[in-house]
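We now fix the convention by which a protein and its fold are recorded. These numbers are not coordinates but entries in a learned vocabulary of local backbone shapes. A record is reproduced here so that you can trace the correspondence yourselves:
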Amino acid sequence: LCASPNRAASMLEISKSFARDLMAKHEIPGRVAYRTFDSLDGLDDFLKKMNGEVAVKPVGLTGGKGVKISGEHLKDDDEIRSYCKEILEKSIGGSGFVIEEKLVGEEFTLQAFSDGENVYPLPAVQDHKRAYEGDTGPNTGGMGSYSQADHLLPFLTNEEYLRSVDIVKSTVEAMRKEGCPYKGVIYGQFMLTRSGPKVVEFNARFGDPEAMNVLPLLDGNYVEICTGIARGKVPANEVKFKDLATVCKYVVPKGYGVKSIANEPLHVDEEAISKTGAKIYYAAVDKRDDGLYTTTSRSLGVVGMANTIEEAERRAEMALEYVKGTIFMRHDIGKRASIERKVAHMERVRRG
């Protein structure tokens, strides 16, 4: 038995162009204007059509670090052309790239279990891709994330959440119609825009760090759910979640996102962390005879759970006091000021 999508279904993540073409063919809501290129031919005309407001994405996989946005990573059309040329010359993410309309709003993640026909959504989560506090610095695999006790987010309404669920359901239905039913965890990365949720990308797996927010809340039998995925019938009564908020904060080696300082001792007091009520999840660490050492990637995540985001964040911070080394982490994730800033931003977006 296998509770994961096969290669044909995994094309949703493997190929950006496959996912966009599927949404266009089946007229799935939440799609964006886009064009796929395997050369620079026609690039200037499309950039002009989009007024230079675009996202540039290698067609294939790049570990979550290949996307560059105009006005953020690329300051003008010349830099956009230069990056597109680099993608082709260095075969970044395979061959080719996708130019998409730039989305403005707040990003969030919706994950779900799918048995090929039915979709069972999980609580919404907001990840933080930028390396530094205030959502600045280079993109990373994710520095931390949070979820709310009602399974929504401070800036996300129930209606908007349900629209996102419908997009994921429509995508799974489209895959079934294409002859490659999607069985497994499906991850939808969304941008909540003025006109509602838009798809940033799909992944054929749990999100990292978002899995650390939702799986500790699962109040059903995970083995039974996975068995149901593999057999084509998830037991709906097992897909239930505790009404708790979570805050996850990643501990990473100094320099992560640019040039990590690796092979440094990492001291973790697991017993003290347990007493805070937080959970710890190891990621990329090197276990040697004399202890743990950092690698070039993220080291570990701590997750606080409580009735409110504020209390969950406090527990995560308490846990971080017991992790020492040549490391850093974003302390602003889940804090009131950070969340209020995101809510205010979404209010401005809705007003236009």
